[in-house]
Amino acid sequence: MKLLKPTWVNHNGKPIFSVDIHPDGTKFATGGQGQDSGKVVIWNMAPVLKEDDEKNENIPKMLCQMDNHLACVNCVRWSNNGVYLASGGDDKLIMVWKRAAYIGPSTVFGSSSKLTNVEQWRCVSILRSHSGDVMDVAWSPHDAWLASCSVDNTVVIWNAVKFPEILATLKGHSGLVKGLTWDPVGKYIASQADDRSLKVWRTMDWQLETSITKPFDECGGTTHVLRLSWSPDGHYLVSAHAMNNSGPTAQIIERDGWKTNMDFVGHRKAVTVVKFNPKIFKKKQKNGSSTKSSCPYCCCAVGSKDRSLSVWLTCLKRPLVVIHELFDKSIMDISWTLNGLGILVCSMDGSVAFLDFSQDELGDPLSEEEKIEPMKAFDSRFTERSKATSGTAVVTNTNQAVVDRLKDQNLIKDNKPKDILESSSDSEEKIPAVKPLSVPKRKLELEGETVEKKKKGRPRKDSRLVPVTLTVQSPAALASEKDAACISAPALALKLPSPIPQKSFTLQVSSDPSMYLEVENEMTAVGGSKLSRLKCNREGKEWETVLTSRILTAAGSCEIVCVACEKRTLSVFSACGRRLLPPIILNTPISTLHCTGSYIMTLTTAATLSVWDVHKQTVIVRDESLQTILSGSDTTVSQILLTQHGIPVMSMSDGKAYCFNPSLSTCSGRQAARLFSMPHLVQQETTLAYLENQIAAALMLQSSHEYRHWLLIYARYLVNEGFEYRLRELCKDLLGPVHYSAGSQWESTVMGLRKRELLKELLPVIGQNLRFQRLFTEYQEQLDILRDK
């Protein structure tokens, strides 16, 4: 680990209250006190990372300084896509900044001509609503919302797509609100205040989910900030400024039931800021040996009024490292680099520090594919919140296990109180102090002791290979399975594993273009039934929809997205979120789902294989049994893939490979489909799902009259709600290619209706919204060109 303090990062001796590293890692922002105003500065990251760049006078250190805030800036935060910077200050304002086109160097106002702005950042929105100092701001996981909190006891949720529109004002705190953090899944936002409570709010209806007070009952005094943090897997929420047996802690709150049984112990004064590393890690494998992979874990940094910083791995019972007296005053903010190995820390003393870790110290970051696994990353014997009566020294409860373990590792010889107790000379709050032992050698091996969860037929990232294991059971064992279909066979029947339902999971579909799916099950009850949400993010553009059954597995390609639900339904969407088919009913539960191009392949628990071509709306392979290949032996399918031409290829555990030839099979006809109806809720995504279902059903029923009716209603809804991405895709499909090409697969009609005539009907609807003038003009011109031909 390297530790540096770049002295050139400063606000001329004035306090720095906030620091945030840009998502691309090339720059960082600081916020704090200026001469007569609040100050926001954007700095170059290169001179921090490389000593040569720091010495090179041609490489600028400061990129831009903004003095627009009328009073001290308490928080600066980059949007996740890196386009915007939000800052909040004592002038009750939130300012949103965006980089402007370079016009040439401009001098910083009021400075000597030497100080020039290398980059131009201008304020594009000023958000006014709070009646007191703004203490913290936070962008939601996909930048749809910006939250701010204030000493006016409120949290305001801004519509980041339509600043300065306010979506909600969250009222419930009875004290100054000093910290915010979004759940990475986007289901909750949490806030912490001086009223000794931490509140979790639902994003679905912006109502209070829970208020946690117990860990804060003993808290005396206040801190300037209460920066809390959510773990990247969404399982843990960690607070600032909690107390356990009179000792300052950072409280660990479990998402599951909001339990408060664990905490980070050891700082001598109140914890001001906690920040989770954006990465999830697994134990570094020694010299490439293929040992059993360890349970994944998270990494969290904790800063305190005691001027020290501790970094914890959730698989260890004690901090990985503690740096005492890092600053002269309280730590105010922490920011990790996106690769998870670097950390910037700022202090009220006006300076910043940078820590650089190695992968040997933290571990290997999980790939997108591995992140799908459920996480329960805390050591099962992690610092339990002591049940002892108040007054018992916190040391006896929490540190004995640490001492025992250190003894096991021969890191300390005897257990004298001086090893773990330290007199608290500079502490304002007289408390029994616990000094976590600094790690003696940097080569300390990380310990992960949590029971590993086995993978069961979960979707994988690779766009070609889907490993799947087949287990063979006797018919008697199968007979008890309620919804498994038995295939009659001489002596054995097959039952493949089905994906275990998860509360939520993420899946990367492709890296170029960047496209990933997020699934959240059991979101809310509608008339007694639970809904599930599917979100798709493609190169920063996002769509979402809801389904009435739990989503078990998902797959996708650059062209389509497909999900399989618990009710044995398969739902298919375009890459922009339009439902392309009514839900397909599978005969037996899903085991494996796969997409390549416009093809979908399913393998069910009864070992039947099906393939559809979504573009042509045809079945290529229907319910073909793998019984003949698999029965009577211990052979299992080791890998199964779908070629670009929709042909399934299986490689078996005995080394043989099979290719299914659709042209020789007897499959034909339309797939079994059942009309899918849903309550017409006012909620946007539900309405979209409802309208798209009507269109898909009209297509399936070959009802041109209903198709046109629902298409116009759908287009009007997209216009009203501002869904440009989907509107554009719809127009593109209706227009087709302007210039004839022999290879074009575009059909000019749909159920006898001419697509370009439908587009003519849609365009006036689109033209009514000023936002879509460019889209309207673009397609009107294309139609004119075609007419003139």
UniProtKB/TrEMBL annotation:
Residue intervals of the Protein HIRA-like C-terminal domain: 577-666, 682-734
Gene3D superfamilies found in the cross-reference section: YVTN repeat-like/Quinoprotein amine dehydrogenase (2.130.10.10)
Keyword field contains Transcription: yes
SMART domains for the chain: WD40 (SM00320)
Classification via InterPro entries: Beta-prop_CAF1B_HIR1, HIR1-like, HIRA-like_C, WD40/YVTN_repeat-like_dom_sf, WD40_repeat_dom_sf, WD40_rpt
Superkingdom as given in the UniProt entry: Eukaryota
Subcellular location: Nucleus
Sorted UniProt keywords: Chromatin regulator, Nucleus, Repeat, Repressor, Transcription, Transcription regulation, WD repeat
Signal sequence coordinates: none
A GO cellular component entry from the record: nucleus
One GO term of the biological process aspect: chromatin remodeling
Example GO molecular function: nucleosome binding
Domain CAF1B/HIR1 beta-propeller: 1-213
Keyword Repeat applies: yes
WD repeat intervals: 66-98, 127-159, 170-201
Family: Belongs to the WD repeat HIR1 family.
Reported function: Required for replication-independent chromatin assembly and for the periodic repression of histone gene transcription during the cell cycle.
PANTHER family the UniProt entry points to: MEMBER OF THE HIR1 FAMILY OF WD-REPEAT PROTEINS, PROTEIN HIRA
Protein name as annotated: Protein HIRA
Species this protein is from: Callipepla squamata (Scaled quail)
